[in-house]
């Protein structure tokens, strides 16, 4: 058991991101009358319980093996996964908003505090250390672009100017990091196999950006259409690249498939709610079905590899 705690990965929080995204689909579909609220209620408490369990495990690792935690925190790639803790809190805050706004606020404030720390620390770490272009992968989007999530429930819990601060910084770094990403994948060697699933992260920034923007300006304008259409473009691009994902060995990075698909599903459902354009409803249903299938497959694979003792082991 000690070895399992010692090698418990920070990437475990990506499970919470994916399942929280599924909960938000159930919440949105429930609001629109597409699903009964039972789906949302069950998913909300299930993912909350799992978040507590994962947090206890990582806290035990922090207490029992602090050197392992610091090694992850100083790792040029794994440091980018620490904000999955704060992003998980923010997603749970969004999920609880329709259930209990007080609980949502309790989750949002520490989520924002941690997100601020992780984002500033990651960006300063990038600046102060020398990197090779091969170190870059889409997981770098997580620390800075994760700021875009703050306004989704933050509009309800704090002055709008605070949410706009995080929205602005997140969208800025989306553009900057996407340019680096494109240069990396076009002109340099391919990503390692375990990072191939992180290509799906490209969907999340414009999809979440669209949802956040609608919180500020609930209007179907040029900027909102730009973000939604960019997210849908990346869905089509990744669908075209489908063969690249079907033969991958399982890694915990497979959970990178999940949250972006749930984000674009919620975004298209919101687009239908805002515009009444029926095509968005059908797209949302199709994407929601795909997200449910992907999450089911990834969850099954995760449990299967846990039973084989292939999770929580020492990695390179």
From TrEMBL:
Chief place where the protein resides: membrane
Spans traversing the lipid bilayer: 7-27, 39-60, 81-99, 105-127, 139-155, 161-183, 195-216, 222-239, 251-270, 282-300
GO cellular-component term (any): plasma membrane
A Pfam family recorded for this sequence: SLAC1
Topology of the protein relative to the lipid bilayer: Multi-pass membrane protein
Keyword Lipid metabolism attached: no
UniProt entry keywords in alphabetical sequence: Membrane, Transmembrane, Transmembrane helix
Source domain of life: Bacteria
Protein name: Tellurite resistance protein
Organism (species): Alkalitalea saponilacus
Taxonomy of the source species: Bacteria, Pseudomonadati, Bacteroidota, Bacteroidia, Marinilabiliales
């Amino acid at each position: 058991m000690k070895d399992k705690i010692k090698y418990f990965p920070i990437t475990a929080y990506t499970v919470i991101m994916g399942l929280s995204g599924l909960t938000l689909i159930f919440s949105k579909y429930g609001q629109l009358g597409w699903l009964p609220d039972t789906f949302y209620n069950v998913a909300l408490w299930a993912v909350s319980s799992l978040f507590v369990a994962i947090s206890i495990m990582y806290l035990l690792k922090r207490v029992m093996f602090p050197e392992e935690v610091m090694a992850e925190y100083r790792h040029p790639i794994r440091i980018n996964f620490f904000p999955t803790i704060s992003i998980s809190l923010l997603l749970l805050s969004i999920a609880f908003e329709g259930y209990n706004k007080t609980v949502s606020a309790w989750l949002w404030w520490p989520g924002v505090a941690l997100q601020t720390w992780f984002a500033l620390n990651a960006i300063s770490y990038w600046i102060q250390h020398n990197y090779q272009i091969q170190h870059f992968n889409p997981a770098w989007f997580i620390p800075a672009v994760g700021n875009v999530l703050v306004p989704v429930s933050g509009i309800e819990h704090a002055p709008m100017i605070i949410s706009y601060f995080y929205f602005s910084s997140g969208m800025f770094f989306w553009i900057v990091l996407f340019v680096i990403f494109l240069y990396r994948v076009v002109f340099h060697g391919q990503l390692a196999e375990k990072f191939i699933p992180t290509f799906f992260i490209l969907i999340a920034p414009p999809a979440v950006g669209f949802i956040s923007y609608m919180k500020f300006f609930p209007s179907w304008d040029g900027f909102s259409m730009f973000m939604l259409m960019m997210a849908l473009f990346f869905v089509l691009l990744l669908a075209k690249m489908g063969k690249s994902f079907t033969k991958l060995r399982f890694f915990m990075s497979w959970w990178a498939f999940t949250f972006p698909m749930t984000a674009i599903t919620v975004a298209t459902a919101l687009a239908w709610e805002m515009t009444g354009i029926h095509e968005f409803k059908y797209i949302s249903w199709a994407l929601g079905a795909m997200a449910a299938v992907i999450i089911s497959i990834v969850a099954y694979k995760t449990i299967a590899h846990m039973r084989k003792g292939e999770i929580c082991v020492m990695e390179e």
